[in-house]
Amino acid sequence: MVMTIYGSFNSTYIEYNATDLLENHQNGSTSKREKRSDEIRRDLPVSGYHDAGMGGEEPQATSAEHEELFAQYREEDGRPDPATCNEEETDHQMNSNRSKRSGANSRANNRVSDREFTFSRKLLLLNLLVNGLMFAVAGYITYHCFNKAMVLFSWHPAFMSIGYLILMSQAVLTMSGTNYFTHRCNHRTKVFLHWLLQAVAGILITIASVCIFLNKVRLQKSHFQTLHAIFGLVTVCFTLASIAGGVATKYAFQLRQYMRPIYSKLIHGIAGTVAYLLGVSTIGLGVYSRWFQEDNDANVRLALVIAIGVIALYVIVAPMFNTIQRVKTAVRSTL
Predict the structure, then answer these.
(1) Cα–Cα distance measured from residue 133 to residue 314, given in angstroms and rounded to the nearest whole number
(2) Strand partners of residue 49
(3) Which H helix or E strand runs over 273?
(4) Is the pLDDT of residue 30 over 50?
(5) Contact assessment for residue 40 and residue 69, using Cβ atoms and an 8 Å cutoff
(6) CA-based nearest residue to 307, from 149, 135, 53, 188
(7) Per-residue pLDDT at 163
(8) Which of 10, 26, 125, 176 has its CA 20 to 30 A from that of 237?
(9) Helix (H) or strand (E) holding 50
(10) Chain centroid, CA 208 distance in Å
(11) Could you say which DSSP state residue 105 is in?
(12) Quick one: which of 180, 181, 187 has its CA closest to 118?
């Protein structure tokens, strides 16, 4: 009797549990997951220790272990990890932005390449003309200096024409980016070539100035009596100021405590522009000097002056615009 009642009770209990499991399976596993999550949080606190009975204390799980358990729990349930989703979205966004930037850069590079190709053809024609005029005018003046005799005075017009018309013109064109032979060089190479050409030009101009001064002393003639001589003196002064400004510009970072870099560049740009304009003007005045008029008629002198004007116009346009921009920048930064 008792065994019969017990067996009937046991079978009823098993049927009840089976029915309960079936209902849980049909209703989903949401409550089960919440229960398991609560059990993990309850059984594994974040910090501290809990009593493990009379045997003593054992360390509890850390937050890292909690995250690992939750990750495993989510993997078992098939739910994605929110942190992983965020990382994937961030990576996708970064890759998308990188692709957009690379595409924009490639399009910009293509546009620059197209401009350089078109600009290079113009530069090729202009530089052939201007460089040809530079060497033609300086070569003719140098030839005229030594065609009869080689005296102390001969080195003055020869070195002045080479220093200003060739070397200084090439140095200015190199930095302004309008020289076909150097416009593809990087900035460091351009600065080096500018320094080298200006240094050689400064040496030749100094030698030419010393030669004319000693020649005046040897002949016991007065100094700075003509317009050409006065322009020459002012030109040399501005050339020295330009050289000093160039040194200050090169070491602008080391001298920033004494002078702002924008000011050193401004001084160098203004002094260099004025020095070059005065230099070519002085050479033009020298073409009309009494010494040069003895063996050259008016047409030759006029052709030389026009050629000198074309050279100066081509060389100095870009530096003048750069100097104006630097003046505006200096004024805005000061106000």
Answers:
(1) 11
(2) 59
(3) helix 261-287
(4) no
(5) yes
(6) 135
(7) 96
(8) 176
(9) strand 49-51
(10) 38
(11) H
(12) 180
Token match 């220790």: residue?
Answer: 49
Neighbouring C-alpha atoms within 13 Å toward the C-beta of 123:
18
Structural contact between residues 178 and 159, judged by C-beta atoms closer than 8 angstroms: no
In tens, the pLDDT along 235-244 reads: 999 999 999 9
For residue 242, count CB atoms less than 10 angstroms from its CB and return exposed for 0-12, middle for 13-18, buried for 19 or more: buried
pLDDT at residue 125, rounded to an integer:
86
- 165-216 per-position pLDDT tens digit: 999 999 999 988 788 788 788 989 999 999 999 999 999 999 999 999 999 9
Q: What is the pLDDT of residues 126-161, one digit of tens each?
A: 888 999 999 999 999 999 999 888 899 999 999 999
pLDDT at position 117 over 80: no
d(CA 47, CA 39): 16
Report yes or no: 265 and 300 within 8 Å, Cβ to Cβ.
no
Its pTM stands at 0.64
Residue 123 Cα distances to 120, 129, 239, 281, angstroms = 5, 10, 27, 25
Concatenated DSSP letters for 288-318? TSHHHHTT--HHHHHHHHHHHHHHHHHHHHH
Count the residues in the chain. Answer: 335
Task: Give the pair of three-digit tokens for residue 305.
Answer: 């002056």
Residue type, 112: V
DSSP secondary structure code for residue 81 in this structure: P
Mean pLDDT of 85-102: 56
| Amino acid 95: pLDDT | 58
Of 159, 91, 97, 173, the closest CA to residue 129 belongs to 173
The structure tokens listed for 80 are 């994605």
Encoded tokens for 247: 């040194």
